[in-house]
Each structure stands twice: as C-alpha cells, then as structure tokens.
Amino acid sequence: MPDEAASALARNDPEVAAIVAAERARQTETLEIIASENYASAAVLEATGSVFTNKYAEGYPGRRYYAGNEHADAVESLAIARAKALFGAEHANVQPTSGAEANMAAYLAFAEPGDTILGLELTQGGHLTHGSPVNFSGRLYDFVPYSVDRETEVVDMARVAELAAEARPRVIVTGATAYPRRFDFAAFAEIARAVGALLLVDMSHFAGLVAGGAHPSPVPHADVVTSTTHKTLRGPRGAFAMTTAEHAAALDKAVFPGTQGGPHLHSIAAKAVAFGEALRPEFRDYAARVTANAAALAEALMERGLRLVSGGTDTHLALIDCGALGISGLKAQNALQGSGIIANKNTIPYDERSPFVTSGLRIGTPALTSRGMGEAEMGRLADWIARVLRDPDGEGVREGVRREVAAFARQWPVPGLSDA
Ligand SMILES: *Cc1c(COP(=O)(O)O)cnc(C)c1O
Q1: Helix (H, G, I), strand (E, B), or coil: what is residue 243?
Q2: Atom of ligand 1 nearest to the CA of 205
Q3: Pocket of ligand 1, candidates 104, 120, 129: which has the most ligand atoms within 8 Å of its Cβ, to mutate?
C-alpha cells in the first residue's frame, strides 16, 4: 500500500485520510471476531478503487444503455463466468450491490406483493430481509416464520413441512445471519416441491465455505441462491445471485431494471478478483481452516464452562449464551470491545431480552483465519473471552487483556493492509 503521507488522499483531504489511517490502525490492533466480517486481499482493494468507479453501464454485457462499455462488458462477463465455475451454477447475476438488494430482486422476480413467504424467525438467526416488519420484505410480503426446536436449537424440519403445507407459500427462504449449524437443503427442496413453492437459499454467511468445499452447496437444490461477497468469500462489499437457466431471465429483469440502476463496476471488477482467488487451491485450505478454527474456539469456550447455542458449531460462527453467565449480550459486547476483541451482541433462540440488549454474543473465525491464525491461537482467544465475560465490570481484567490482545494482534499481519 502507498505510504499514507504520500497518498493523493492525504494531500487532498488530510481530514478523511486521518480517519482512514485510524481505521487501519484499529483493524490491525484489535481481534475481529464479528462473524460477517473479513479482510479483503490487496488485489480486491485495488480493483475496488479502480477507474471503473467512473463508468455507467446500465444493462448487461452486450446490451448496455450507454456507450464505451467494451471493458465493462469484459470485466462483468469474467465475474459471471468465474461465479458460475466456482459454484457450478447455470446462471449468475453479479450486479446486486448488497445482500439486501439481492434478496429484494429475488422476491420481486418470484413473488407478488402480498404473497406468502416462509422464512426463519428473525430472533433465531434470520435476516432483516427475511420478513422483518421494519424491512421492505415484511411490509410487502406475508412472511410466516419457522423456528428452531427449544431443546436442540436446530431448525425443526417437521415443523417447516407442517407450516408449508398450511401456508402454501410462494417462496421458502432459508439461510441466516446467526445460525451455527448447517441447513438441510435437500429437505428444504423436497418441502418446497411438495407445496409448489420456489426455494431461495441466502448463503450470504457461508458462501466462502461452499466455495472452498467446507460446507454443502445449496446450488443443486435451490431455484435461486443469493449471497453477499464480503463475508466468508473475502470479496468487496456487494452481492450476487444465481439461478437455474429456467429462472435466469426473471432474475436479471428483477435486478435491472427491477431494483437497481447502474451497476457498480468497480465492485464487479473486485468480485471477479475475489471469485478468481476462491477458485485457487489455497482457498480450499482457507475454508477448511475457518471451520476448524470455529470448532476449536467453540470447544475451548465450552471447556471453560460457557454455554453455546446448539452445543457448538459446524460452520464459521457460534453463539455464546451470555444469559447463562448472568449478563446481557450488550454488556458482553462492550466488555470485550474494551479489551480489543470485537464481536456483536445477538438474540438467541427464545431470548427474553430485547433485540437491542439480547442474551447472546455472535462470534466467528473468518477474519482471524485470514490473518493466518490457527487452532492454538483460538485457545488463547477463548481464554481472553472467558476471563472478560466472567468479570465484565473488572477494570483490571479488561485492561490486562487489552494489553495482551494489542501485543498479540500486532504479530499477525492484516491482508490488504500489509500486501498479504
Ligand atoms: C449479511 C446478510 C444479508 C445482507 O447483506 P448486506 O450486504 O448487508 O445488505 C442478507 N442476508 C443474510 C443471510 C446475511 O447474512
């Protein structure tokens, strides 16, 4: 990366440059365990900051509403080809600018306002765009929530089948933001087929694990798959969607002109880079290490007496039941932040606290694994987390952990910030 002092940004706008430099230092000196975050490579960051920022390209490769798009066509076609190769999909659309917009396009393509859609209960891990009343999804569609079993805290497929038979939804959506287990895509597909619904899998969280072969793929089972590119996939902020050939035209029309204007070509160029990186053998190794680290972290936390939702994880994330320690998720989040460990509060199944306070803490290993950490480091991390959560008001503990964390974090280069 260019020296900050010599950069155009520093010369042009020292105020913004100083804020960016402070964020760079924060990302280097803390331990990032927010399950939806990651570090993009230097190549992804460079493509994101490229001259494609300047170009309008409404339409699709070969069918644009503007002139001068020969290179835009090349980069978008490359991103599409790589996404299809990576996931074995018949069709890909790489224009959605965010996961929320990819889902909006998917609903627009396959349901009418007022139609019934089945989605995972939001307080049990579902996403805002899976039917929250404050989101467009909950306002435009009639969402019926399915839930996890109280005992196992795993999705109750028998109940999903019952609800589907009663509600006769147009679409069944699965995938989540805070669910530590794998979804049974084949079982969801069977239920969807039985009631004449389409199956939409939102793999935003675990797309990188699918790409790297560390998680089953929803692509052979789903009619539509949506995903972000910036979580486990390590790409730029953005999203994409895939369908069978049968639904390709409907999806494309729903993305543009249905929900978006000009595509973000700089981001599409960076998506092409990220898909290319994920196609390399090293990415399989990365995905395997993400899940191995999550399993090791979960095991180490449970050995220290913490309760995890569903008793562990088989993905990149886990949920700590802070209520079992007598504290809220909010308190846990703040105490850890004071120690340089960045996680987020989250509701847990059948939570008695409000969504702002919560009883849970969501943790994940994608970002630390990108820094090269392994299972031994997960043991140290579990130690720090357990110490802080058992004494969240203890300033001595917090300060001690903060010093240890800062010294430790500096030993692990951050990809993209140190040319890694
Ligand atoms: C992160 C996420 C989204 C939204 O992605 P944004 O890019 O933040 O809009 C949608 N669905 C799921 C399941 C997610 O985890």
Answers
A1: strand
A2: 15
A3: 129
For 108-160, the pLDDT digits (tens) are 999 999 999 999 999 999 999 999 999 999 999 999 999 999 999 999 999 99
Q: Ligand 1 centre and the CA of 400: distance in Å? A: 35
Ligand 1 and 174: CB distance under 6 A: no
Q: 22-40: per-residue pLDDT in tens?
A: 999 999 999 999 999 999 9
DSSP-assigned states of every residue in 40-67: --HHHHHHHTSGGGG----EETTEESSS
Give the pTM.
0.97
Give the number of the atom of ligand 1 that is nearest the alpha carbon of residue 202. 13
Domain 281-409 top-level CATH class = alpha beta
Q: Is the pLDDT of residue 185 over 80?
A: yes
**Does the pLDDT value for residue 279 go beyond 60?**
yes
Q: Where are the domains of the chain?
A: 48-278, 281-409
122 ligand 1 Cβ < 6 A = no
Q: Measure 226 CA to ligand 1 centroid, in angstroms.
A: 9
Which of 130, 173, 204, 316 should be mutated for ligand 1, with most atoms under 8 A from CB? 204
Write the CB contacts of 224 (distance below 8 Å, at least 6 apart in sequence): 106, 109, 110, 198, 199, 200, 201, 241, 242, 243, 247, 251
Say how many Å lie between the CA of residue 232 and the centre of ligand 1: 12
Q: Which CATH number fits domain 48-278: 3.30.1330.10, 3.60.15.10, 3.40.640.10, 3.40.50.2300?
A: 3.40.640.10
Other residues' Cβ atoms within 10 Å of the Cβ of residue 66? 12
